[in-house]
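quick q for whoever's on today - can somebody do inverse folding on this one?? i tried earlier but teh output was garbage lol. tokens:
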């Protein structure tokens, strides 16, 4: 059986699945439920001294939407969209002290880790909250530089407002890292383009790792009433956000090489595997436990264990980052791969009653012939679109031979375009890298 245990920033976890900071970690009672459900760790709902962020949680609003942008009634499928507004913990951080100690002990007794989360009003508050977390014996703290809501709260500064500013993120991280000994992990916001700059800044400031990422800010409309859902902007997430989160996990893993924990877009164990393969060995599960209940957690953990066993991964390290390491560094590498072209299998093709591939090939590379669909090899660029739009699995991709390439003007870039000093000249002469019809 696969060994699911791992170490992240010096803290040991029995497996890669922990609970993200949100409503499912907002009281000692629910923390206990998470431990009982088998979580490897829980990140407490963000502790704060910002009154309005605490009050916001007491006024939380939720809209769970389906693929038709309708409110879900009942079963939540993988294509859910969670539109919601909630703040930080409504229990003042000092009042959390006995609960943190008790919950940390309960977690440790079950080989689980209780992790802190902070969101302060001033730099001194960030320090005070993190010191309190450390004094309660918690082995790690996450700084919430990712919450989308402070930006919409008048007079409040925090969350993504810090996470969008590399210098401010650096300052708060450095001050907290000076004040505590436990590893500090920064939760990043995806609501920006400078995620990597922020991650680099907090790494230089002493952060042990980062979380990629918190959620986006959205705006959702009920077209029947013409009203915005939940009265206006709110946080938004769902499995649709996963590739966007993975993009940052990938870049942080490959370009910064710093420990990264994954968040934003988990529904099942397959999503957990994607995060691990991209480079985040520790993965946080959030919304789906709010929508399905904490009892759903073992399904994810069991699924991960079975996946590793059936695919021959002996441990978490053997999966971590494999997809990122297999990734091209830039699009230029694609040009080194062999050319492909499409062919239609006449035995299964339903033409002429079906013409979908012809309609969806935007390169004029498939045409109606008297005996079926013909590939116009000179035009086919090997994009693979038709292999997916054909409902009858009747198109396939084949490596283009050198002889065939020679017949395909589109694949031949005039050599003088790339001769030294002639690049612009080539374009001046109107040489275009567009297809030449055969
Ligand atoms: C209702 C709600 C409340 C949240 N509260 C917090 C919070 O207090 N602190 C925090 O760091 N993240 C908070 N988050 C973000 C989650 O921890 C998590 O990063 C995010 O939901 C993405 O993961 P998921 O797709 O598994 O939900 C909250 C998310 C939701 C939906
Ligand atoms: S691979 Fe792309 S270009 Fe070629 S036939 Fe199919 S859709 Fe057209
Ligand atoms: S989409 Fe498939 S079945 Fe339809 S014409 Fe093209 S190859 Fe034939």
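ok took a stab at it. sequence:
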């Amino acid at each position: 059986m696969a060994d699911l245990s791992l170490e992240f920033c010096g803290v040991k976890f029995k497996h890669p699945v922990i609970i993200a900071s949100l409503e499912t970690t907002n009281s000692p009672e629910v923390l206990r439920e998470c431990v009982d459900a088998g979580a490897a760790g829980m990140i407490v709902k963000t502790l704060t001294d910002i009154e309005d962020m605490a009050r916001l949680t007491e006024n939380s609003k939720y809209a769970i939407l389906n693929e038709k942008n309708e409110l879900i009634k009942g079963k939540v499928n993988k294509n859910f969209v969670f539109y919601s507004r909630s703040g930080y913990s409504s229990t003042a951080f000092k009042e959390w002290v006995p609960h943190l100690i008790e919950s940390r002990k309960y977690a440790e007794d079950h080989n689980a880790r209780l992790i802190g989360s902070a969101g302060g009003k001033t730099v001194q508050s960030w320090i005070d909250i993190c010191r309190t977390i450390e004094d309660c014996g918690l082995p790690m703290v996450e700084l919430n530089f990712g919450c989308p809501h402070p930006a919409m709260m008048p007079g409040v500064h925090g969350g993504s407002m810090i996470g969008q500013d590399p210098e401010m993120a650096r300052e708060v991280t450095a001050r907290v890292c000076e004040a505590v000994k436990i590893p500090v992990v920064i939760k990043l916001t995806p609501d920006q383009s400078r995620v990597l700059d922020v991650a680099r800044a907090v790494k230089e400031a002493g952060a042990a790792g980062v979380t990629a990422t918190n959620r986006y800010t959205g705006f959702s409309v009920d077209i029947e009433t013409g009203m915005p859902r939940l009265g206006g902007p709110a946080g938004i997430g769902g499995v649709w956000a996963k590739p966007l989160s993975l993009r940052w996990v990938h870049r942080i893993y490959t370009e910064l090489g710093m420990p990264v924990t994954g968040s934003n877009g988990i529904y099942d164990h397959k999503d957990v595997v994607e995060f691990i393969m991209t480079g985040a060995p520790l993965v946080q599960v959030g919304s789906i436990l709010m929508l399905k209940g904490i009892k759903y957690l073992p399904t994810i953990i069991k699924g991960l264990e079975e996946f590793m066993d059936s695919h021959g991964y002996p441990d978490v390290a053997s999966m971590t980052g494999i997809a990122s390491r297999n990734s091209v560094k830039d699009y230029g590498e694609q040009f080194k791969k062999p050319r492909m072209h499409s062919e239609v299998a006449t035995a299964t093709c339903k033409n002429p009653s079906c013409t979908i591939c012809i309609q969806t090939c935007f390169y004029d590379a498939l045409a109606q012939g008297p005996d079926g669909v013909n590939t116009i090899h000179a035009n086919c660029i090997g994009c693979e679109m038709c292999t997916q739009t054909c409902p009858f699995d009747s198109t396939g991709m084949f490596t283009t031979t050198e002889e065939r390439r020679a017949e395909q003007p589109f694949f031949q870039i005039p050599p003088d375009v790339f001769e030294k000093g002639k690049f612009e000249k080539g374009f001046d002469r109107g040489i275009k890298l567009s297809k030449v019809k055969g």
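fwiw Residues 413-438 have pLDDT under 50 and may be disordered. also The first strand starts at residue 6 and ends at 8. so keep that in mind when u check it
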